[in-house]
Design brief:
The chain contains four helices and no strands. The chain is elongated, with a radius of gyration of 17 Å. α1 packs antiparallel against α4. The model has no long low-confidence stretch (mean pLDDT 90). It has 107 residues and is mainly α. The chain has one domain.
Length: 107
């Protein structure tokens, strides 16, 4: 049963990676194309090449700063990504918590 739970949690995480990259890319693309000043303030982030400053984008997203931009598409995308990443992080934490708990319980 424990293995099944781990497989299910890992599968959900794995299946969420590609859509997560796509949503993140669309969000950054919109910022770059329509709100260049904000994109520059965030350090000109990209999905892979300049992702060392992703902490700024994470704070921008979770701080809901995208609402201040006044872009309806960015607002909808940001709200969706906020929920998407929150669910992803909760599953991620649950996955590793389950590993730790099941490892300790087996000893």
């Amino acid at each position: 049963m424990e293995n099944l739970i781990l497989i299910v949690l890992f599968s959900i995480l794995a299946l969420m990676v590609i859509p997560g990259f796509f949503f993140h890319w669309k969000f950054l693309k919109r910022l770059k194309e329509e709100h260049l000043d904000v994109w520059n303030e965030l350090g000109q982030p990209s999905l892979f090449l300049n992702n060392s400053i992703n902490w700024r984008v994470t704070k921008f997203l979770f701080g809901r700063k995208y609402l201040e931009v006044g872009d309806e598409f960015l607002t909808k995308m940001g709200d969706f990504m906020l929920v998407f990443y929150s669910v992803y992080y909760l599953i991620f934490i649950g996955f590793f918590s389950f590993i730790i708990i099941s490892t300790r319980a087996s000893h």
